[in-house]
């Protein structure tokens, strides 16, 4: 379907579980080298997986793994993790800004601690990770930054119920808009990827039944779409806001039922898509 990621070095934030881990495992199947930059070094009572269990899975899938405990809000930690990745693997080819915090709550129901978390992880974390990885990406043969963030849809309906989350998530997308233009003449592709439907991750469970798991697709659809984007030449596209099933359809995929948690169930659409 696409070129291979064999030997490529990926720095993936929030890769201990969910979409980030799925992207890591898909790359590992090609023989890629993956730095897992995430906070979860110890098992969480409500969330599956740590950087170490993810590393084991990546290696079992055929890749090399470097588990790094990182709070991506902390500039020094991220800078150190990027340097360690480059030293350990010989560079960085691909940055996937996947880590994200979510709270689908209104203005009066969102305490500032939660606002700061969303802005810190989604916006600051994405910016810091890009800044830390850029010196290495700009030396790579086919460098990519891929943010797991939505198209910039300014319809007020996407703000009215969760203004803080929308602003924080759009901050990741604004990084795509700006950095794609900033580095267009340096051979670096900067794109965003967003799912058409809800994805079966821990975030869905934490929404307290707002969306049923049976109405989701699995993280593997995002992993396959991300692979198609970052394995392609960086010159193919930049500054684009891509949707998972459109990317895969373009790559020749016709059977999307295999990505459904429960084939035949109606799929819940994701946020920010009309």
> What is the element string, with H for helices and E for strands?
EHEHEHEHEHEHHEH
Question: Helical region count?
Answer: 8
Rg from C-alpha positions? 17 Å
Envelope shape? globular
By DSSP, the count of extended strands is: 7
Which residues sit in consecutive blocks of at least 5 with pLDDT less than 50? none
Mean pLDDT: 96
Distance between the termini: 29 Å
Oligomer: single chain
State the helical fraction: 25-40%
Main β-sheet: number of strands, strand sense, barrel status? 7 strands, parallel
Overview of the molecule:
This protein is of the alpha/beta class. The chain has eight helices and seven strands, in the order βαβαβαβαβαβααβα. Strand 2 (33-38), helix 2 (51-60) and strand 3 form a beta-alpha-beta unit. Helix 3 (75-89) packs parallel to helix 4. The chain is globular. The mean pLDDT is 96.
Summarize the structure.
This protein has 274 residues and is an alpha/beta fold.
Write the layout of secondary structure elements.
Layout: E1 9-13, H1 18-29, E2 33-38, H2 51-60, E3 64-69, H3 75-89, E4 94-97, H4 112-137, E5 144-148, H5 163-182, E6 189-194, H6 202-206, H7 220-230, E7 241-243, H8 244-250
Helix pairs in contact: 1-2, 1-7, 3-4, 4-5, 7-8
Kindly list the characteristics that best describe this protein.
274 residues, alpha/beta, 7-stranded parallel sheet, 7 strands, 13% strand
